[in-house]
Amino acid sequence: MYLRTIFLAIATLSFTFSDYNISSVKANTSQDFIAQNIKQQTKGITTRSLEVGKIKLSMSEQVVRRLLGKPLKVENKFFPAIGNVRTLKYSGITIDLDEGVQPRYFTVYQITVTSPKYATVNGIKVGDSQAKVLKVYGKPPNSENGQFTTLSYGIDEPSPAGLNFTIKNGKVAEIFCFYLMN
User: Fold this and answer.
1) How far is 154 from 179, CA to CA, in rounded Å?
2) What are the residues whose beta carbons fall under 8 Å from the beta carbon of 53, sequence distance 6 or more?
3) 163 Cβ contact partners less than 8 Å away, ≥ 6 residues apart
4) Residue 53's pLDDT is what?
């Protein structure tokens, strides 16, 4: 399931940064997209935006546990493209951490939220309207898939990362914050 989430993140960012039209302006590269998209957005996202429920990307596992307490479930897996991954599951929030180069030192690379208990730094939470997301972050290219829409916001620097809102029936059903893993 988490491998599917990783591939979804990669596919979403790949789709977001692919060649498409934005208001008659052709975006050919990720940097062109970011520059043009930020001009269209009311606020856009920054590295500061890559936080949900006080959990930030690159945060250490120790800090996550200090903030959220003991997880309901811990899973350890190995993915060839990433390496050792640890998943901390709490009620309404799942945090994926990778080991990186320092053995047994895990840092956050992805956050998935399904509870209104956890909000973005701009105050968006599960249950909020699509209109509120658009008012706060601006209008990105939408990715529609039948019953839901994904609003994807990305940054390129210092590392490719994103903040996705899954909209179902006009409301935020899930918030997904992530680094694009190489």
Assistant:
1) 10
2) 93, 111, 113, 117, 118, 119
3) 45, 49, 50, 120, 137, 152, 153, 154, 175, 176, 177
4) 93
Rounded Cα distance between 52 and 141, Å, is 22
Q: Are 130 and 170 in contact (CB under 8 A)?
A: yes
Q: Are 27 and 36 in contact (CB under 8 A)?
A: yes
- Separation of alpha carbons 95 and 177, rounded Å: 10
Q: Please give the full DSSP string across 48-71, using - where no structure is assigned.
A: GG-EETTEETT-BHHHHHHHH-S-
Report how many helices (DSSP H) and strands (DSSP E) the chain contains, helices first: 4, 12
Categorize the per-residue pLDDT at 72 as very low, low, confident or very high, splitting at 50, 70 and 90: very high
In the chain, the percentage of residues whose pLDDT exceeds 70 is 75
* pTM, two decimal places: 0.75
DSSP string, 92-126: TEEEEEE-TTSTT--EEEEEEE-STT-BBTTS-BT
Residue carrying structure tokens 């008012």: 135
pLDDT at 140: 87
Taking the C-alpha atoms of residue 34 and residue 40, their distance in angstroms, rounded to an integer, is 10
